[in-house]
Amino acid sequence: MFVTCVTLSLRLSEREIKMKKSIFGVIASLLLASSVSVADPVVGRVSDSSIIVSGQTVRYTVACNAAETTLFVMTGDGDGDIDCCLIDENANVVECDNRPVDGCVLRVTPVWTGKFYFVATNTGKYASMYRFIAY
């Protein structure tokens, strides 16, 4: 997995950090408890969590199997607006989710096994603590 992030100089109080982690934990628990039947990426489940500031873009490289559905989920803490797209190794946009919410979900079934790039941008005004899962 490859992650591109910029260095953050973000000041949050201890109370804000604890609150965001608590909310974030509930969201992650709900995601992991869901009963969606999908295939794993080639390397197995991919997950990460971090903070994405306003205007920042993060990118994950995930190898997916042909003819197997992979679910890409990124959930924020509610403070931002995370938009995402999946791009194939030939720079074609496979699918996007640009809804005005702090998170996105992409479900794809590639026709070939290869590298795909999950690209997410926080288009909102505020930073958002996020959790990313591909499975």
Plain-language structure description:
By secondary structure, the protein is mainly beta. The chain has a single domain, classed as Jelly Rolls, CATH 2.60.120.380. Helix content is 15%, strand content 42%. It is built from 1 helix and 9 strands. The protein has one helix at 14-33, and strands at residues 3-4, 46-52, 57-64, 70-75, 82-88, 93-97, 103-108, 114-122, 128-134. A 5-stranded antiparallel sheet has the order 1-3-8-5-6, with no helix packed on it. The protein has a 4-stranded antiparallel sheet with strand order 2-9-4-7, with helices on one face. A hairpin with a 4-residue loop joins strand 5 (82-88) and strand 6 (93-97). The longest helix is centred in the N-terminal third of the chain and has 20 residues, at 14-33. It is elongated. The protein starts with a strand and ends with a strand. The relative contact order is 0.28. Residues 1-10 and 26-40 have low confidence and may be disordered.
The CATH topology assignment is Jelly Rolls
CATH architecture classification: Sandwich
Q: Please give the share of residues in helix.
A: 10-25%
Instruction: Please write the string of helix (H) and strand (E) elements.
Output: EHEEEEEEEE
Cα-to-Cα separation, first versus last residue: 13 Å
The stretches of 5 or more residues where confidence is low (pLDDT under 50) are: 1-10, 26-40
Note the overall shape: elongated
Number of strands: 9
**What is the count of DSSP helices, taking H or I runs of 4+ residues?**
1
Average of per-residue pLDDT values: 79
Spatial strand order of the main sheet: 1-3-8-5-6
% residues in beta strands:
35-45%
Counted up, domains total 1
**Helix-and-strand structural type:** mainly beta
Profile the largest sheet: 5 strands, antiparallel
The top-level CATH class is Mainly Beta
Report the radius of gyration as a whole number of Å: 15 Å
